[in-house]
Amino acid sequence: MTSSSESILLLVPHVKLKKNEGELYLMSERLGWMVGNKDSFNVSHKYSDIKTQKISPEGKPKVQLQVCLHDGSATTFQFVNPSGQAEQMADRDKVKDLLQLMLPKFKRMVNKDLEEKKLFLSENPQYRQLYMDLVKSNVISAEEFWSDHATQFIKQQQETKNATQQDVGISASFLADIKPQTDGCNGGVRYLLTSDVMASIFRTYPSVKQKHLKCVPNKMTEEEFWKKFFSSHYLHRDKNINDTKDLFTDCGKQDEQVLKQDLTTAINDPLLDLTALNDIEDETSGTPSNAKINNIAHQNMIRRFNQHSILVLKASEQAAGAEPATVEAAPPKRMRLQEALTYDDLESNESNPTVQLNLCRIERYLNGPPTTVPSHAGVNKNGSSTGQAIDPNTFKSILGRWMRGGGDRYNPLDVLSSATAVTVLGELSIGGSLMRGPQPNSAIHLTSELQKELKELYVSLSEILKHFWAAFPPSTPELVQKTNRMIDALHKFNQAKLTPYEQKLIQASTSSEAENILRPLRFQLQAAIRKHSQLSERRPLPRTAVSSM
Amino acid sequence: MEDKEERIETSLVAIVIDATPAKKFASQPLDGSSMMNRIFDSLIAFGNAHLMQASHNKLAIIACNSKSTKFLYPSMDGNSRSYQNRPGQYDMFAKVDSDVRHGLGELILNDLTDNDSTKSDSLLGGAMARALCYIHRVQRELSLSHQLKPRVLVVSGSCDSALQYMTFMNVFFTAQKENVVIDCCMMDTDSGLLQQGCDITGGQYLHIPSVAGLLEYLLWVFLPSPSCRSKIVLPPPTKVDYRAACFCHHKLVDIGWVCSVCLSIFCKFSIMCTTCNTEFKLNRPAIVPAKSKKRARIE
């Protein structure tokens, strides 16, 4: 009936869905409903898909429960227990209570994910645009988008995964923060221990935790244990009260042992001399007994500080455990000495090795485009060909005449004859041969809106194409599958995006212009599709082979 | 009338004359004279017309051929030469006339006495650079009450020279930086490089259909200062071809391969850049699909 891996938490018969009566199952990860005599679920919702549940108000004739899903749809179950409305209510409440218990567990997971994605999209407008273009138009699915296309998001996620979250430490004043509550009638004082405080105590005093594990369920109650703990000298041991009956006496000893062990294992630095830090050296003044008491108090204090420091150090080592956790062995003495003797800033800093750029034909940069612009003044073609043949003496005489041509011999008509002047005037007037602009079809004018849309099209298409070509050569089945997916996406893109845009363009301008504008896009699309069809010809059944995997 | 706060505008036109095609034009007879005479006379007339427009206006004329460049006006060899002016002619016009005739003739004759060099390219780039230097000098020497509006007018009839590409580009970008407008009037041939230069600096490029009417084109299109050109109906700007040439075949390419190390441009893909010997490592099989390579759109 149901898959064996799922445990059924609750089964409610007599539940109507859309006028069919059936049974409602609540399992560990989803809820399902099936018509009475079938053996598969007609409706099944994962808890993680469910946003909220709603119940019909009291006093209504129908007893109903509605689950609203994240995608906006909702399913309504009606409870129709034949034994009456009270039973129906009871059924409904059972379901409601269980759902109330289950939903928060899954909700947090989903919400966190959703929120992260939302935040990412709002922070990266280019990805938001891509999301709108590709996912909203069903070119690719949302999961694909998040897993393949939003590369930055994936990177970000991995980074957060790698960076282990730092544990929140313990507040230094957690014990002082436990506020007593006076009980008005008895004059007694009550202390409220929250689980947070308990956790803090356990972390501060690991041996207490062991004790707690040992004693609490079987030997004494929780309350007793904590009472004992707070009255114990273990907590107040710097006050040095001797009480052998105390539950926590051996805790102190245990701590001592741990401390000793840590001392021997942790410190293996040959250059570190702990005895230099001796603090009882100059203990000469004062009466011996007094000094001794002081001494013990001091020592206790110092010991507690040390213990605390060791715990803190251990915690930090654990936090760094994600990285290679092996504490590197203390470097050899020689190296340590070397380190202490040399200073990096005093060394001459060597420049980074650079690769020399080896240009072998620099003249290539200096040469411009060749003169291919042909002269279109046909009149002078003949002249120039004969021009080379002009006799140098004739040329000289012409030039000489011109050089002497100024002054009195100047004839204004030499500069411009009336006939030429009229022709030129015609050319330079509006409508003349020189006043025509360049061919109009060379520049296509798009409204800014269409331009923006075109840009978005380019971005979306190149995103899909990037993934398509990245799968080449498709040597593994996964890659083949990827090319298939991408080709599907390309086809969808063509239908859902390109064609409507072309229609818009045709409305705005002429069809030939629209074709020109979209030609590069279509070319890219065709290239991918051609490549893919070539590929599928070579491998007869890539699609089916893949889908069976 | 004159506002004391306002600085007096001084318009400086530096005309760069390309003298290489002189021989070609000399062989074309025109109304009992030759086309060359017509062109040179037109240029003198244009220069004088510019000077006539306002008393502050300045003029510089530089000529070049394939060997050298030469300042025609203001002439560099002092005031030694005498000039004769017609009765009633403004002194300065006569000086321009005489200086240009003399200097230009000398330049061409010198060229002629040497071996025939019409085959090599004219030093247009160098002449333009000299014009820019002159403009810079005038700008510095000008008193604060004057504001210089400089521009360069190139009158040429020869083809682009691929060898001077860098010079041209340097001149164009310098001019752009110095706010010097470069105008260009092309006779006979078209020049892609000068088109770019005019476009970059905001000048007017005109390829004239008939050389005989040069003066009218000059007066009509290039005499008005750039500031008032927007108010006049002028020939529309030509479509400038900014395509780059590939390094391998010197073809103009729309889309080509650009080496990611040395920025060389190629029209075909090769595994190694032939300029800097960089090997392009592609983690692809030997048959290279178009997608994997670096594509660059060259404008």
TrEMBL record, chain A:
Residues of the signal peptide: none
A Gene Ontology BP annotation from the UniProt entry: DNA-templated transcription
Gene3D superfamilies with a match to the protein in the record: 6.10.140.1200, BSD domain (1.10.3970.10), Pleckstrin-homology domain (PH domain)/Phosphotyrosine-binding domain (PTB) (2.30.29.30)
Keywords tagged on the record: Nucleus, Repeat, Transcription, Transcription regulation
Superkingdom of origin organism: Eukaryota
Domain BSD: 110-147, 196-237
UniProt xrefs under InterPro entries: BSD_dom, BSD_dom_sf, PH-like_dom_sf, Tfb1/GTF2H1, TFIIH_BTF_p62_N
Pfam name, any one: BSD
Localization terms from the record: Nucleus
GO CC, one annotated term: transcription factor TFIIH core complex
Sequence similarity: Belongs to the TFB1 family.
The protein's name: BSD domain-containing protein
Organism: Daphnia sinensis
UniProtKB/TrEMBL annotation, chain B:
UniProt-annotated location(s): Nucleus
GO CC annotations on file: transcription factor TFIIH core complex; transcription factor TFIIH holo complex
Gene3D superfamilies named in the record: von Willebrand factor, type A domain
Keyword Signal set for record: no
Coiled-coil positions: none
Single GO term (MF): zinc ion binding
Keywords: DNA damage, DNA repair, Metal-binding, Nucleus, Transcription, Transcription regulation, Zinc, Zinc-finger
GO-annotated biological processes: nucleotide-excision repair; regulation of DNA-templated transcription
Function: Component of the general transcription and DNA repair factor IIH (TFIIH) core complex, which is involved in general and transcription-coupled nucleotide excision repair (NER) of damaged DNA and, when complexed to CAK, in RNA transcription by RNA polymerase II. In NER, TFIIH acts by opening DNA around the lesion to allow the excision of the damaged oligonucleotide and its replacement by a new DNA fragment. In transcription, TFIIH has an essential role in transcription initiation.
Family: Belongs to the TFB4 family.
PANTHER family named among the record's database cross-references: GENERAL TRANSCRIPTION FACTOR IIH SUBUNIT 3, TRANSCRIPTION INITIATION FACTOR IIH TFIIH , POLYPEPTIDE 3-RELATED
Complex and partners: Part of a TFIID-containing RNA polymerase II pre-initiation complex that is composed of TBP and at least GTF2A1, GTF2A2, GTF2E1, GTF2E2, GTF2F1, GTF2H2, GTF2H3, GTF2H4, GTF2H5, GTF2B, TCEA1, ERCC2, ERCC3, TAF1, TAF2, TAF3, TAF4, TAF5, TAF6, TAF7, TAF8, TAF9, TAF10, TAF11, TAF12 and TAF13. Component of the 7-subunit TFIIH core complex composed of XPB/ERCC3, XPD/ERCC2, GTF2H1, GTF2H2, GTF2H3, GTF2H4 and GTF2H5, which is active in NER.
Protein name: General transcription factor IIH subunit 3
